[in-house]
Amino acid sequence: MQLAKKIIIADDHPLFRTAMQQAVKQLVPDVAIEQAESLPELQQLVEQHKDADLVLLDLQMPGAHGYSGLVFLRSHYPEIPVIVVSACEDPAIMCQAIDHEASGYIAKSSPLDTIAEAIQRVLQGDIYLPEVARRHQHLPDEKALDLAERLASLTPQQFRVLTMMTEGMLNKQIAYDLDVSEATIKAHVTAIFRKLGVRTRTQAVIAVQSLDIEKPDQQMAQSSQ
After folding, report:
1. What would be the CATH architecture of the domain defined by 5-134?
2. Closest CA to 123 of 35, 44, 38, 30
3. pLDDT score, position 54
4. Most exposed of 145, 166, 170, 191 (fewest Cβ within 10 Å)?
5. Where are the domains of the chain?
């Protein structure tokens, strides 16, 4: 007897999560779906569902900076394939997602048959990249990949602390939210600095923010100038 598939949809827009859930249920009849609307929620979900078959991940979510959520998933749960589902249709961004070990990329404007093909191919163990990205001349960003490797060396708790740091939270606030001592947070921060090769909180935040991608409306504004 074949076990039901378990898929996690991570996106901060409720309407899109609902639409994607309906699409997935049409494509994979026997499926259990979990949803997350922020990176911290997604971290908790994958910890609870380490046997998930697939994560559908939006890059623009609270707590995430561009590829940071993807880097976290691939470093700590490498057995779970991840398809990036984004409003961004820049072929360079699509290729960079694959550089960061995504198993596929789906533009949110894609028709249902394209979404179906991507999900089916990734569930079968393949990589799915839209045709426009396959035609794109692409060279990996070595600096970004080096930073991703450094981020991947963080423990899940260190990654949570770093995420909170990027939101401007102080050690005392982070300690309260994570229900640990401030000394524990200070130890995590020291380890984060060492692993990222930085000396200050500002440098650590800037490093993570360098993984950000431009939002579609920013891209349109720039292209019209």
Report:
1. 3-Layer(aba) Sandwich (3.40)
2. 30
3. 95
4. 170
5. 5-134, 142-209
Task: Please say if the pLDDT value at position 218 is more than 50.
Answer: no
CA distance 214 to 88: 8
Is residue 105's pLDDT more than 50? yes
Distances (CA, A) of 11 to 58, 85, 100, 125, 188: 5, 9, 19, 23, 28
Question: Could you tell me which residues are beta bridge partners of residue 35?
Answer: 9
Which whole number is the average pLDDT over 202-207?
90
Report d(CA 221, CA 224) in Å as an integer: 5
d(CA 101, CA 91): 16
Chain centroid to CA 89: 16
| Domain 142-209 class in CATH | mainly alpha
Contact 97, 128 (CB under 8 A): no
User: CA dihedral defined by 177, 56, 130, 136, rounded to 10 degrees?
Assistant: 20
133 falls in which pLDDT band (50, 70, 90)? confident
CB atoms under 10 Å from CB of 17, counted, come to 19
The helix/strand/coil state of 175 is helix
Pure H helices in the chain: 14-27, 39-48, 68-76, 91-99, 112-123, 131-134, 142-152, 156-166, 171-178, 182-196, 201-209, 216-223
Residue 2 has pLDDT above 90, yes or no: no
Per-residue tokens: 204: 């650590």
